[in-house]
């Protein structure tokens, strides 16, 4: 009976989304037929159902995507919904397509995007990793969050050289320190409403934390949206150097942790937008002339397959003319190709800015 009631409630909420003017990929691709096909399915190992996948998008009609995978098997069991969303977001990755083998290549192939420091405030490259054998947020409990954290910490203490650093758990962290780390763009913000309604913030702050190297240009986030986020960041536009630091850190960590990589979808992540390489390479950039022509900027971003975000992250505004511009697609191409696409795009934007002056 309880199951019947839950199904009825999900149907009501689905109808509301379908009748709304939401621009989310969930609304676009979750047809009535697919909804009916999937509504009573569950994943074999962790028993997740459709509501776990779509609850964020049902809550927030202003989602860009609105879909998450509660566990790795969800990508297969609910493929009828995930596949078209993945194809749309990653610009044409079809259900027969396969993520190529990892190839990081050399960051030094990419020249500094802004050697005179005119446009780029800072550059950041991140990737996400899941640990094999564990489900994602909606299926984790306080003890599994802690178990993941302790596995990650065991690997972190083995990092050496420029990656060496300390792990700071969120539990018991000084409020001023937490605020400073967030303001410096080093640490994730708590209370993301999209993650919250996706079931990704339960037992907070248990098992969550940040590892920071001595130079504060290499970070590892523990149990935020993904089990692991590996991040490299510094002032200026030396994308190649930032990328190499992340890639070497990923390689070092991978010697001590088995990452969950799918043959077809590449590295598995909670959000389907992060599959494949899971790399987001971004610059905080000032383009004063292009900012005055938002339509032109939007057109250029589409041409170069770039995504524009606000200054303090996704779903925020651009403060002081600083935008966060990054590669949109992460799946269907190698790590090296992702960085190349982003490098060419930013180069193109800077050229357009110079012409628009
Ligand atoms: P992600 O999914 O990559 O973690 P978010 O949009 O949630 O992205 O941003 C996380 C944090 O990283 C935010 O504080 C954001 O301002 C910061 N950030 C992203 N790109 C840059 C950059 N190029 N320079 C400085 N900070 C950045
Ligand atoms: C949304 O749907 O807006 C959020 N769930 C975040 C989706 C991830 N966004 C992205 O473009 N990488």
Structure description:
The chain is of the alpha+beta class and 357 residues long. The protein has two domains: 88 residues, Transferase Creatine Kinase, Chain A, domain 1 (Orthogonal Bundle); 250 residues, Glutamine synthetase/guanido kinase, catalytic domain (Creatine Kinase, Chain A, domain 2, 2-Layer Sandwich), CATH 3.30.590. The protein contains 13 helices and ten strands. The chain has an eight-stranded antiparallel sheet with strand order 2-3-4-5-1-8-10-9. Helix 1 packs across helix 4. The mean pLDDT is 97. Bound molecules: adenosine-5'-diphosphate and citrulline. Its EC number is 2.7.3.3. It is an enzyme of class 2 (transferase). Belongs to the ATP:guanido phosphotransferase family.
Task: Please outline what is shown here.
This protein is α+β, with helices and mostly antiparallel strands. The chain has helices at 2-19, 25-29, 32-38, 50-59, 74-77, 79-89, 142-156, 175-183, 193-197, 239-254, 288-291, 294-303, 335-356; strands at 120-129, 165-169, 209-213, 218-222, 228-235, 261-262, 266-267, 280-286, 306-309, 322-327.
Describe how the helices and strands are arranged.
Elements: H1 2-19, H2 25-29, H3 32-38, H4 50-59, H5 74-77, H6 79-89, E1 120-129, H7 142-156, E2 165-169, H8 175-183, H9 193-197, E3 209-213, E4 218-222, E5 228-235, H10 239-254, E6 261-262, E7 266-267, E8 280-286, H11 288-291, H12 294-303, E9 306-309, E10 322-327, H13 335-356
Helix pairs in contact: 1-4
The site of adenosine-5'-diphosphate (ADP) has 15 residues, from strand 1 and strand 8.
GO biological process, one term: phosphocreatine biosynthetic process
InterPro entries: ATP-guanido_PTrfase (IPR000749), ATP-guanido_PTrfase_AS (IPR022415), ATP-guanido_PTrfase_cat (IPR022414), ATP-guanido_PTrfase_N (IPR022413), ATP-guanido_PTrfase_N_sf (IPR036802), Gln_synth/guanido_kin_cat_dom (IPR014746)
Protein name: arginine kinase
